[in-house]
Amino acid sequence: MHRSRVVVEPPDSRGLRQVRVGGEAVGAAWSPHDLRKVLVHEGFPDDVDLKDRALISWREAGSDSWPDRPSKRRTTAGLMMMGLAGSAAFFIAIGSEDAFGALTFASQVSGFFLFLAGVGQLLAACAVLDFWGKRTMRYSGLLVLVCVFVALLVNSMLVILWSQKMEFTPWAFSYVPLMVWSFWVMWIVLREKAWRGAPLPRQVTAGVLATALLAGGNFAYSAAYQPYATKPQITLSAKFGKPQLDPREPVIYIPVTFDLHNTGKVSVTVLGSVFWVRGRASKSETGKDGLDGARKDAESFEDSELYAASPKWHLIMTGLISPPGDWFDPGTGQAEEAVVQVPKGADYESLEVSGEVTLIRKDRGKVDDSFLTPRLSWVKGETDIFECPPKKCGDYVLYVGKLTHNNNIINVTRRDRYVFEARSLGEGASTFEVIAPLNSRGKVSYDYERDETYGLETIPSGAAVIPFAAVLKSVA
Predict the structure, then answer these.
(1) What's the fold here for domain 235-355+460-476?
(2) CB 151 within 8 A of CB 87
(3) Whether this model's pTM surpasses 0.90
(4) What are the tens digits of pLDDT across the range 263-302?
């Protein structure tokens, strides 16, 4: 018969009692039945007398003290596992988007850390079984503590970012409850001193803190510092080419060229562009009245001239420099050409060409492919989202696309943003670009985003002017 001395330690906070045989820890028991199983495993007979004080020594609590509450313990473990599994799914979902698809290295690093945090949450969910069981694994408690701490940090950060705008987003139904859950679980694991039994807990905790700070620093760098520290550098120029006279008709063909180049270090996406070719006409003046019309000229931003009345500009041609949705990486560009037709007998003093391109930084957001499809104001229903009827705004072409932020953490803490680009047609040809959410009626909201937030910028070409007399002379 096995006669080694058995020692049953007092119950811990969960009601589990450690068992030692001959001074060596051999297991733990929740109940007398559980204790008997441990002893049988160690070679004691099936009918071992648990009240034999010569065989079993009960420390601090007797043989009738078994305070385990299995329903409460299992419910707590279940809620912890559910929260860790939910955090894992959430972190992996939003982290993988950046880890494998972000346009900047910093955002990829942040996404990778978040993805790893999600994997850690899955491991911790498995470790909960041991932590709320007999704790046979040395690291189960520390793993649960560390991963709950990470969940608390990440979910709190998401709630803080969301609270800045307090916008409705379905994702908030994930991280707001998870933050509350994180505080509850953190209180439990601290109360249970989950780090006990694990070697070097301070070093492990310091490593987790360093990783969390690194991930937070990468997020701050990619979301705030980098976009404002590095500015896009885009050049746009316009010029006239050599005129040619039609051999059959009294028409002069004048080529115009637009050069667009990205000379900086930031990739950009074209939201809208337009160019204008105008002809200037004015009546001659004797000059005897001096510059009496200077006030009127100043009001219309015109030069004051002694021998010419206030000029009139006639739009001869307008069009696109680059199609909406086109993009330019650093060091790339394009030359767009068009040919202007002007009658040889036109009563112009000069011709002028100019243009502009509106761009957005690619590292601030990506516009989806729906932006490439134009919507025509004169086709019923196509531009209702813009709330600008043709009777009021005239004919225009509208481009609408959903904007996805380059950092997915921002996507899950903000409601959807859309890019709107409207190009009006006719004599008043111009473009209008805004980034805004949709209002409660599903129309574009007037709560426009600031241009600086997304690096929205309009680049003018400057004006190239050529005397019409010089054009006539070159084709004579």
Answers:
(1) Immunoglobulin-like (2.60.40)
(2) yes
(3) no
(4) 998 899 999 999 999 998 877 655 555 556 555 656 566 6
